[in-house]
């Protein structure tokens, strides 16, 4: 008598748990990813072979355009930004409204002298982004506002780090004035942003 073969059943895999994990990971990366902000002006840094990664936290930066204009980017902390603005206002005798302080927490970079900062902060956010012809933050032997921004930031948090990004075509005397200003406040440790050799920024 022939043996009866048992009927084969297909294997059913429950994918519910896998889908849950996938969506949890996706949500995590969406909430924690920090996108790189575009530069206020197009800057092409010099190349190097260094592969060190900039720290993400407590980082302020200075961008130097090909024409030698300086832009200062404070740290992202909104409360500390307001404190920084108040400190600079006291130093230069400029008072800011609450609305201007809130606007300052959202600016991408500072590219105007203190005398023009109030009018810049009063602009709508979209006009700030489209603002052209900014003179840059003054930095020379007679007017060292850029160093003052850095010094007042360090007064709020001495652990702040500084990164400097200059264009490959920026003339050295322009950057030298910044280096000398940092030396004057005894701030000698900072990062220089470069692009890796063989790669485009």
TrEMBL record:
One of its GO terms (molecular function) is transmembrane transporter activity. Keywords: Cell membrane, Membrane, Protein transport, Transmembrane, Transmembrane helix, Transport. It comes from the Bacteria. InterPro entries: ExbD. It is found in: Cell membrane. Its main location: membrane. GO terms for cellular component: plasma membrane. It is a single-pass membrane protein; Single-pass type II membrane protein. One of its GO terms (biological process) is protein transport. Belongs to the ExbD/TolR family. This is Outer membrane transport energization protein ExbD. It comes from Chryseobacterium defluvii. The lineage of its organism: Bacteria, Pseudomonadati, Bacteroidota, Flavobacteriia, Flavobacteriales.
């Amino acid at each position: 008598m022939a043996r009866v073969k048992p009927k084969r059943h297909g294997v059913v895999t429950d994918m519910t748990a896998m889908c849950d994990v996938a969506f949890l990971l996706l949500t995590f990366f969406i909430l924690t990813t920090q996108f790189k902000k575009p530069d206020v002006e197009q800057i092409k840094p010099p190349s190097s072979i260094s592969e060190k990664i900039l720290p993400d936290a407590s980082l302020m930066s200075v961008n130097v355009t090909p024409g030698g204009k300086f832009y200062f980017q404070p740290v992202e902390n909104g409360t500390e930004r307001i404190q920084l603005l108040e400190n600079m206002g006291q130093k230069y005798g400029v008072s800011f409204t609450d609305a201007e302080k809130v606007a300052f927490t959202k600016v991408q970079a500072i590219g105007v002298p203190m005398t023009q900062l109030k009018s810049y902060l009063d602009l709508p956010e979209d006009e700030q982004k489209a603002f052209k012809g900014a003179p840059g933050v003054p930095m020379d032997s007679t007017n060292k506002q850029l160093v003052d921004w850095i010094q007042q930031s360090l007064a709020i948090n001495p652990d702040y780090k500084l990164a400097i990004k200059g264009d490959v075509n920026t003339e050295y005397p322009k950057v030298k004035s910044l280096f000398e200003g940092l030396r004057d406040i005894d701030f000698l440790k900072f990062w220089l942003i470069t692009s890796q050799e063989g790669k485009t920024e």
